[in-house]
């Protein structure tokens, strides 16, 4: 089968690989119909995640058709069209049993500090991902859901990670009616978080980025008030000014390890890998909110230390909340919101490319060329 | 003002927001928010018809974090450990917990060694690594490199110049070293 593979930092290609096999009785093999490239994949692409082995296939956002099922699979049959959450999880461990699906203890031998994720290095379990023609889906009775007849497949694809994660990020921000919410990052996850903040009853939603075309999308897609941080000498002071010197009630950090805006932090972290990611956006979030606020962190970081302004967070009495999103928990409610016409996740998609062009797709997304926001990859189009 | 009890910039009224934004306040009640509460035994997923899953058969010695009691019942088999990078990585897993910086720094070292080993190995195959196609540079031709980058207030322009050095640097350096070694001494 054809699959995207990692060849070292900033290098990927498409290769012929062996078909994935059923390795556990509850596995399924899924033929991928659509996949997409996530901002998290950029952390891999830039070599920021640990134990990322050459030959690894990325891709944790995908929908597909069941091709084969293991002997203990009860809920899926060959031919079913499924959406697969990016989390791999058993459904029965201490954490799964309490709803922490993204923190499963039974699927990642390589680390206890993170659960299982498709195509996200051996630090998240060593599973190849869905930017390929076929993919192994463990615990097929637990994660995948049959795509409802009425749902646009591209909406289903956006729910496998990006939109569900943004929706989750808004929830852990603990938004109250009338709150001022500031979202750092106008990528797909930030856009979804900003859009979702209104569902929770926000009174004002502000989005910060340095890419004007994404801020335009934030105004259109998420009805947000936007600021380009590169146009201000100090974005934290600007946030204070526009909130009457109080600060926002809630911040959502949807940037993660490659955060820009401070040359020293960006270069030591994103380029030289001396930190587990650049904490610029996280520090801005901590400093932009009011005392007693909640900071929701959904941006992803590597496992080594970061230069985070922890003292400010303590002294301001902040609540810091964060996690990898437990995706499937979000679905029943998001299905309703889509059905009611409140949200249209696929409106974030800007590009559709065949799998064979994936190296160019990564370069375009990484360098933010051609006003790229979200790229869908079509494996069988070639 | 923040210096008195009122909120300095009051938000628009809820009616106004409801009229302007589709779905405004649909999840106002925390009970409607699927991630609230964070943890509850009511949230156990449907579909798991086991208390502890059946165990996947390991193919060989599978590395694991020393913070795990045993090999997890399910694990990935995407790229088993091989070569010198495999030795480094196994040492990181066997010797250091996730709490130790050495664990992660060794894994990062393993990644760099793996890249070198794999590039070298690729030259013995019919498909050697090709830095031009693998970096997706062709996107520069088709995807408006100038218009996308300049005159738009992008903060990353200050350090974009580092990327080609990081990516091409090791290749250029290796090429130079190879030439130096191969050139007959005069
Ligand atoms: N927690 C989870 O479950 C989860 C799931 C998916 C993605 N993520 C993470 O969410 C983050 C965003 O993902 P995405 O797909 O939207 O990525 P993306 O790369 O498309 O978006 C990131 C955006 O942040 C902007 N940015 C950079 N520095 C900034 C700064 N200092 N302040 C404000 N904005 C800044 C960038 O210009 C870009 O538009 C990534 O770190 C990703 O790994 C987490
Ligand atoms: Zn993702
Ligand atoms: Zn579990």
Descriptive labels:
heterodimer; A: 382 residues; alpha/beta; Quinone Oxidoreductase, Chain A, domain 1; Rossmann fold; 7-stranded mixed beta sheet; 6-stranded parallel beta sheet; B: 186 residues; mainly alpha; extended; binds nicotinamide-adenine-dinucleotide; binds zinc ion
What is this entry, summarized?
The complex is a heterodimer of chains A (382) and B (186). With 382 residues, chain A is of the alpha/beta class.
The outline of chain B comes out as: extended
Strand content of chain A: 15-25%
CATH architecture of the largest domain in chain A: Alpha-Beta Complex
What proportion of the residues of chain A is helical, as a percent range?
Answer: 25-40%
Low confidence ranges of chain A: none
Average pLDDT of chain A, rounded to a whole number, is 97
Summed up, the domain count of chain A is 2
Round the mean pLDDT of chain B to the nearest integer and report it.
93
Question: Count the strands of chain B?
Answer: 0
Shape of chain A: globular
The CA-CA distance between the termini of chain A, in Å, is 12 Å
Largest interface: A-B, 121 and 104 residues
Number of H- or I-type helical stretches of chain A: 12
Report the C-alpha radius of gyration of chain B, rounded: 28 Å
The percentage helix of chain B is: 40-55%
Order of helices and strands of chain B: HHHHHHH
């Amino acid at each position: 089968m054809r699959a995207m593979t990692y060849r070292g930092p900033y290098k990927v290609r498409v290769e012929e690989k062996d078909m994935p096999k059923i390795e556990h009785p509850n596995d399924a093999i899924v033929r991928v119909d659509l996949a997409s490239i996530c901002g998290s994949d950029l952390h891999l692409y830039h070599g920021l995640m640990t134990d990322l082995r050459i030959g690894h296939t990325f891709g944790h956002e995908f929908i597909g058709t069941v091709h084969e099922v293991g002997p203990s699979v009860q809920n899926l049959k060959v031919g079913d069209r499924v959406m697969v959450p990016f989390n791999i999880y058993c459904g029965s461990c201490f954490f799964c049993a309490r709803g922490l699906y993204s923190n499963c203890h039974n699927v990642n031998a390589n680390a206890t500090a993170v659960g299982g994720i498709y195509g996200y290095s051996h630090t998240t379990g060593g599973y190849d991902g869905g930017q390929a023609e076929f993919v192994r889906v463990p615990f097929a009775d637990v994660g995948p859901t049959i795509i409802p007849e009425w749902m646009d497949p591209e909406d289903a694809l956006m729910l496998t990670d990006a939109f569900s994660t943004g929706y989750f990020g808004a929830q852990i921000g603990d938004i109250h009616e009338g709150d001022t919410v500031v979202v750092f990052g106008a990528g797909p996850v930030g856009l979804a978080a900003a859009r979702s903040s209104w569902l929770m009853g926000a009174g004002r939603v502000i989005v910060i980025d340095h890419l004007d075309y994404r801020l335009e999308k934030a105004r259109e897609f998420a009805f947000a008030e936007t600021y380009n941080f590169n146009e201000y000498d100090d974005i934290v002071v600007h946030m204070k000014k526009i909130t009457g010197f109080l600060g926002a009630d809630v911040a959502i950090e949807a940037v993660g390890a490659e955060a820009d805006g401070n040359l020293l932090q960006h270069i030591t972290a994103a380029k030289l890998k001396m930190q587990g990611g650049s904490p610029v956006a996280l520090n801005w979030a901590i400093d932009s909110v009011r005392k007693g606020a909640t900071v929701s962190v959904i941006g992803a970081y590597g496992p080594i230390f970061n230069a985070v302004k922890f003292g400010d967070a303590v002294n301001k009495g902040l609540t810091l909340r964060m996690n990898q999103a437990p995706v499937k928990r979000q679905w029943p409610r998001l299905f309703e919101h889509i059905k009611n016409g409140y949200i249209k996740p696929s409106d974030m998609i800007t590009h559709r490319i065949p799998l064979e062009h994936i190296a160019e797709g990564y370069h375009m997304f990484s360098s933010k060329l051609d006003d790229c926001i979200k790229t869908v990859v079509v494996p069988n189009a070639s | 003002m923040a210096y008195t009890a009122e909120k300095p910039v009051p938000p628009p009224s809820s009616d106004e927001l409801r009229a302007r934004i589709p779905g405004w306040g649909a999840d106002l009640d925390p009970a409607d928010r699927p991630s609230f509460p964070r943890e509850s035994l009511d949230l156990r997923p449907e579909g798991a018809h086991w208390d502890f899953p059946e165990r996947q058969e390991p193919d060989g010695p599978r590395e694991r974090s020393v913070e795990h009691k045993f090999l997890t019942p399910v694990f990935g088999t995407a790229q088993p450990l091989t070569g010198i990078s495999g030795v480094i990585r196994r040492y990181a897993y066997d010797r250091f917990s996730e709490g130790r910086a050495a664990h992660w720094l060794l894994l990062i070292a393993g990644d760099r060694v793996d890249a070198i080993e794999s590039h070298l190995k690729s030259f013995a195959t019919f498909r050697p690594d090709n830095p031009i196609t693998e970096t997706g540079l062709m996107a520069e031709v088709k995807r408006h490199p100038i218009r996308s980058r300049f005159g738009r207030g992008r903060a990353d322009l200050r350090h974009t110049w580092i990327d080609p050095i990081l990516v091409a640097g090791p290749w250029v350096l290796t090429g130079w070293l190879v030439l130096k070694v191969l050139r007959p001494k005069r």
